[in-house]
User: Which sequence fits this backbone?
């Protein structure tokens, strides 16, 4: 074999092997993701800048493989990508493998806690500057080493429970659980965390959401006891859909992240297509002693695939 061919051989093998590996069995997964970017004027304290932000843009792979008539293998591998500057390539989000069937589903890996999942769509500015994690709560957690069970469909009732292993003999493992009920109009639930965000921490969260035609109203209340310090927070949100527009606003107060925390946001989304929208928002976050301080005016675009 001549030298040019010898040099090309490793590349040819590398190109063929993945194809051969994929051809051994069915491909039963889905590739999905979204790109969400905003151009923002950020006024934080004495500093004011214009910035391009990537708001939890992500790439994911998920699937459900039939094992028999009543049992399925399920999996997901989701990664956050920075669409603004390319940093933090493939930061892990929800990653798990598990089994699903008539009994519900059991998964193991890194995953949002049931308490975090309970917020559903009440936070209308999720992943943006008005996200409740910035002012209202410290309990939107995605811990590693999680085993979680979710009930099957039970006439609107749902429940999830997660055991989070510390993997440290000197640190207690944690628990997160949530239960609720929903139909086409009402979504309501309660969640409880023990030792999730800190070893000496308990959190109770309640949510209520009502969808009345084109109107959606939501409320969240949370109490947090961490290191013998009691604090609480609440948030209200509202959205009105008219044609391709969604007009939304939310307001909340909390001492959980910082004493005297307060946040409000107003915004509008305009759908360009089923999976594409442009949007704008204004958010003001504040707290006592300037522990949290900032206002943000932004326009952006999101495309899901």
Assistant:
């Amino acid at each position: 074999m001549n030298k040019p061919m010898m040099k090309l051989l490793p590349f040819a093998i590398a190109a063929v092997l993945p194809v051969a590996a994929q051809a051994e069995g069915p491909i039963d997964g889905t590739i999905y993701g979204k790109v969400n970017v905003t151009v923002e004027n950020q006024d934080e304290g004495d500093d004011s800048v214009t910035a391009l932000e990537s708001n939890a843009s992500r790439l994911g792979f998920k699937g459900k493989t039939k094992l028999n008539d009543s049992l399925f293998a399920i999996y997901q591998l989701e990664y956050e990508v920075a669409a603004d500057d390319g940093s933090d390539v493939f930061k892990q989000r929800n990653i798990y493998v598990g089994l699903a069937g008539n009994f519900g589903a059991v998964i193991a890996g890194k995953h949002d806690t049931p308490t975090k999942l309970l917020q559903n769509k009440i936070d209308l500015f999720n992943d943006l500057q008005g996200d409740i994690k910035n002012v209202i709560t410290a309990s939107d957690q995605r811990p590693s080493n999680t085993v979680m069970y979710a009930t099957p469909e039970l006439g609107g009732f749902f429940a999830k429970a997660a055991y989070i292993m510390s993997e440290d003999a000197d640190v207690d493992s944690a628990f997160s659980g949530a239960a609720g009920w929903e139909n086409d109009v009402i979504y309501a639930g309660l969640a409880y965390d023990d030792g999730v965000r800190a070893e000496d921490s308990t959190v109770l969260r309640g949510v209520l959401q009502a969808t009345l035609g084109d109107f959606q109203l939501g409320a969240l209340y949370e109490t947090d006891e961490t290191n013998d310090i009691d604090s609480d927070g609440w948030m209200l949100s509202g959205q009105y859909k008219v044609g391709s527009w969604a007009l939304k606003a939310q307001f909340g107060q909390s001492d959980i992240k910082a004493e005297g925390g307060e946040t409000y946001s107003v915004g509008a989304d305009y759908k360009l297509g089923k999976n594409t929208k442009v949007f704008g928002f204004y958010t003001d976050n504040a707290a006592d002693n300037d522990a949290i301080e900032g206002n943000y005016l932004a326009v952006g675009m999101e495309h899901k695939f």
In short: Confidence is low (pLDDT under 50) at residues 1-25. Residues 3-22 form the longest helix (20 residues).
